[in-house]
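U., I forgot to send this yesterday:
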Amino acid sequence: MIVTGALPVKLISFSGKRNADISELSWKTATEQNTARFRIEFSKTASNFQNAGVVVASRNSNGNNYSFQHHISINSDLFYRLAIEEDDGQISYSSIIRLSSQKKGIKIYPTIINSGILNIQTGTPAYKLQILSANGAIVFQKELNGFTGTTTISIPQYSKGIYIVQLLLNEGIKTEKIIIE
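Result:
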């Protein structure tokens, strides 16, 4: 079989990484012909993609290296793809890549306590843990000094009822309602 005509673009690689609130994307082409631009698209679900930006194609017949920074503050994994637009308006898509969130989830559990044990799991540095009574008074406080990971905290026996746990972080406060039985 003989193929005549060149493919508009040959994509060698498409990759990325997340650093805080910036997704750094890069891709490399082997050839580009009649390629107008690369539209960078993103999604939280790998469907219903939105536009993140546009990079104009170099039109280099030997290919080129590209990069794009997407500034976005979302604490979840993100999916990216390239919409490769040709001069005639035709669009082809790259494969979809998934970039994991650098902000790890924060968990305060169990929410119903009958053992005097509270677990904290955080990938974001935590500086202080506070437990507040229903009227807002601080009944327990523990310094965490930028702790990340999982830890078990013994809390004193309090009256049965509803309390608020606050985990103080650089980015703000994570709050969880707990019930002490």
